[in-house]
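Hey, can you fold this one?
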Amino acid sequence: MTRLVDVRNMSRWIADHGPQRCITGMIDYLDADFRRWEQFDKTPRVASHTPFGVIELMPTSDHETYGFKYVNGHPSNPQRGFQTVTAFGVLADVHNGYPTFLAEMTLLTALRTAATSALAARALARPDSQVMAMIGTGSQAEFQALAFRQTLGIDTLRVYDVDPDAIAKLARNLTPLGFSIDAASSAADAARGADIITTCTADKQLATVLHDADVAAGMHVNAIGGDCPGKTELDPAILDRARVFVEYTPQTRIEGEIQHQSDDFPVTELWEVLLGRKEGRTSPADITLFDSVGFAIEDFSALRYVRDQVAGTDYESEIDLVAAPEDPKDLFGMLGAFSPVG
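Sure. Predicted structure:
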């Protein structure tokens, strides 16, 4: 049998344990898997682009367990009553190929994206950071706020979104949790006085939501909105001034902020910093930039974390997903019980 965590049980597990606790545990799993980065199979995600959006598969394996995520990105979906992003993920046993664990990943991806951002910021941002600007206050924003408070103690947010209702939603969700929220009049206004800037917008085009003049020395930029070819959020001049860090370089050169840079534009992969092989922030005046597009190993970590946490609990169920004939060579024989009579 394959173990399953469906939407209801994923929601219940996160609510019962608290999203901050879930994010904290996930950071530990991410950190462990980033530190064994070289053990994994790695490939850019397999994407099918249409005028409506993109559908992607994100596979990886550590040669004991195989994992993949199915995920879409359709920016116009909210206007039609659908989520912009939906996802599910699978873990399988490499030794026999059987899927062992299946989980919803719309909620889980929100947690793992926030956890990855926080892991990077812990390694790259100034330790004395106190204020975060958030450009884009959609479905990812609350998770980012919780992750940065849990990791760096940040509870002061300067926020901007082109949709005032999205800002109101964020304030409604986070103010009761003890956050101080200042609604800014523009992205530049939000960035003013911030130590960390998170950009997370949904429009899939070459955009400039953050300009070079908005980024001061010493800032850490958490650029998580770029996630497909033809979509960016930052003034390219910011990249020229920053120390740029990525997950998996071949994928980020296709999809990230660096997609419009030359092939020899210098970047450092985050796992190298975590292992001490490359430098991260070298001085308080450095501008550090995490050009994050999301990578399969992060989903692998998230799935492993949930699998381990819910094992043996009522948050999971079993589904009859894999055909198992009594004789492994007689698949046709399984039909006998359903043969028409007479």
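The mean pLDDT is 94. Let me know if you want another pass with a different chain boundary.
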